[in-house]
Amino acid sequence: MQNQTNFHWNSDTIEYFKELYAINENDYYRKIEEFVKYECDLEDGETHQDLMVDLINKTQINEEY
Predict the structure, then answer these.
(1) Which of 18, 40, 55, 57 is the most buried (most CB within 10 A)?
(2) Is 3 domain-assigned?
C-alpha cells in the first residue's frame, strides 16, 4: 500500500477548483486532469494520479491547505 502524501497547493488554485466543482462537475474533473498534467512538476516517486487525488480531496471537502 502506498503512503498518501499531502501536497501544498496555492490557495488561489484551491478556491478556483472549489468554485468550479460547485458550477460544473464535468469541467472540474477535466480541468484538474489538465492542470496536473501541464502545470505541475512531479518529484521523486510522485505520479499525476497522486496529485489529482490530493487536489480533488482538498477541493471537495473543507480542509486546511
Answers:
(1) 55
(2) no
C-alpha cell at 4: 498518501
Q: Which residue did the predictor score with more confidence, 37 or 3?
A: 37
Domain range enclosing 42: 11-60
Into how many domains does the chain fold? 1
Phi, psi of 15 (to 5 degrees): -65, -40
**Rounded to whole angstroms, how far apart are CA atoms 63 and 26?**
22
Burial of 26 (0-12, 13-18, 19+ CB in 10 A): exposed
- Rounded to two decimals, the pTM is 0.82
Q: Is position 53 within any domain?
A: yes
Closest CA to 13 of 5, 23, 21, 24: 21
Cell output for 36: 496536473
